Amino acid sequence: MKVSNYGIGFITALFCLTATATASAADLDRAEVESRLAKADKNHPADLRRKELTDIDLSGLNFTQADLWGSDLRRSNFSHSNLSGLNLDLSVLSKVDFSHSNLSNTSIFGVHVGNANLSYANLNGSRFIGVMDRANLSNANLSHAKWGADMKNQSMGLMRASLNNANLSGADLSEANFDRATMRYANFTGAKLQHTVLFGVDLSGADFTGADLTGADLTGTNLEDTNFSGANLEGTRFAGVKDKSTLKGLSTSKNLDKAFID
Questions:
Q1: To which H or E segment does residue 15 belong?
Q2: pTM of the full predicted structure?
C-alpha cells in the first residue's frame, strides 16, 4: 500500500515559513534567559514561548520550568541542559546542539530538527513527529521513545518521523516505537534495538552492523540494501520478506536460526 508523504511535506513547508518569518536577531540573550528562569516556578513558567533564541549559548541551564513552545532555537547551544518533560511542538530546532542534554518525556511535534546534534542526549520516553534527517543521535538514549505514526490522527496525511541519513550508532532504542518512520541510510552500527518496533519503516540502505536486534519487529519494512553484518538477530521478526538474498550481511549475523523470516 502506498502512503502519502503530504504530512512530512507539510512539516518541511512549515519550517521554511517559520524560518523566513524569523530572520531577525534573537529576542533575548543568555543573561535575560537566565533571569527569567531564576524567577520561574511550576505555576509561573519562564515565558520563552515563540521567542527567537537563535545562535545563543544556553548550555547547562535548567528549562524544566520554562515555556518554549513554538520558539525559534536554530543553531543555539543547549548541551548539558535539562529540558525534560517540555512541550517543544512547532519549535524550530535545525542545527541545535542538544548533546548530553535531558530531553526525556518531551513532546516534539511538527518540527524540523535536521542536522542537529543530539549525541549522548537522553530522549527516553519522548514523543517525536517531524524531520530529523542527518541528525547526530550517536550514543543517545531513545529507549521507550514513542516516535511512531499516530494512525488515529492522520487528517493531514501521514505525519511520521523522518530520520534519513541520521547517525544512531551506539544509541539505545530498546522498547522504542518507530512505526512507519523513514530511516533511509541511517547508521545503526553497534546500536541496541531490543524489542524495538520498526513496523512498516523504510530502512533501505540502513546499516545495522554489530547491532542488537533481539526481538525487534521489522514486519513490512523496506530492507533493500540494508546491512546486518554481525548483528544479533535472535527473535527478530522479518515478516513479509520473501527473498532473504535481499538482506545483506546475513552470513556473518548472529542467531539467524532464531530469527523469524517469512
A1: helix 6-21
A2: 0.88
* Contact by Cβ (8 Å): 89, 67: no
pLDDT reported for residue 80: 98
Rg (CA), the chain: 19
Q: What count of residues does the chain have? A: 262
Burial 126-138 (b: 16+ CB within 10 A, else e): bbbbbbbbbbbbb
What pLDDT is recorded for position 261? 83
What rounded mean pLDDT belongs to the chain? Answer: 89
Using CA atoms, how far residue 193 sits from 182, 230, 233, 236, in Å, is 16, 14, 10, 10
Q: Output the nine-digit C-alpha cell for 60.
A: 547547562
User: What is the per-residue pLDDT for 159?
Assistant: 82
8 Å CB contact between 136 and 96 = no
Neighbour tally for 214: CB within 10 Å: 21
Q: What phi and psi values does residue 35 have, to the nearest 5 degrees?
A: -65, -40
Q: Which three cell numbers stand for residue 78?
A: 543547549
Segment 16-39 mean pLDDT: 77
pLDDT band at 110 (very low <50, low <70, confident <90, very high): confident
Phi and psi at residue 205, in whole multiples of 5°? 75, 0
Kindly state the cell numbers that stand for 128: 517525536
Bridge partner list, 222: 202
How much is the average pLDDT of 64-85? 97
The answer to whether 256 touches 237, Cβ cutoff 8 Å, is no
Phi, psi of 18 (to 5 degrees): -65, -45
Confidence at residue 21, expressed as pLDDT on a 0 to 100 scale: 43
